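Subgroup meeting minutes
Present: P.N., E.W., G.H.
Scribe: E.W.

1. P.N. recapped why we're keeping a running log of single-chain structure predictions: easier to compare across weeks, and new members can see raw inputs and outputs side by side.
2. G.H. added today's entry (292 aa).
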Amino acid sequence: MTDRNAGLDPESDFVEIYRNLGTYDFPWDLNQSLSFALFRTYAVPSIGRLLDATGEFARATQKRYDDTSLLLEVPLLDGFDSPRGRAAIRRINQMHRMYDISNDDMRYVLSTFVVVPARWVHAFGWRPLTPDELLASVRYYQALGRRMGVTGIPETYAGFAALMDDYERAHFAYDPASARVADQTLALLVSFYPRFLAPLIEVFSRSLMDPPLLRAFGFRDPGRAARRLSAGALRLRARAVAVLPKRRTPLHVSDLPRIRSYPNGFEIERMGTFAPGCPVPHGVSHDAASVD
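Output recorded in log:
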């Protein structure tokens, strides 16, 4: 375990451990991998169609990205039971209640938050996660899921991994609505870099997607050479980061230049989407819990 997390108990200190991972040890890796985790969920047609039907990705892709990133970061930084942490989860639950979302889909999305970052760090991180850090990430998202009213949450990392892999095998499929959401999101991710790099970043992004994900979005396979070069670049970055001095100040998502919607700060209660005006059926099939 790193010095910062040494002596911390993943059963009771999981928020602090995961906060250290996300703001000191792996801020770039976790930000990238969580973006890809959400991206994967669009390949499930019931999720992709809903996101497309809201119109938010066509109308305000940047704001949708920013709201998701910031609302998820608040409880990480302040704690689940802090006033701001409770307000952020309340806002997330209020948005989810506007739509018919199955518990199965909610649980699948939660599994991607656990599994995709762990696999990313294993493949491209400057050091591996320790067993305690992996357990802390499991406990962190179990706590988040419970506060979002998700039921049947796996007890272990292996359980989360099996859930995610099985759900994707059963549900990944091409759908025009999902493909539109993927196109809009990929265009946003590419926009975070200088324009002359756009073609390279687009190929690089597709190189990190597995064949089932590419097929679900109708994306062209980038080819073996592009995959090897992209993975090699990430591993080279990891070697460079490993020899750099340890980060002394935390890096927050809200500090990143790709967060553009709130240059003067944000109010949690005003973020996200609000009813009325929702163009899709309403419902509370996932029984999201209140955190008032």
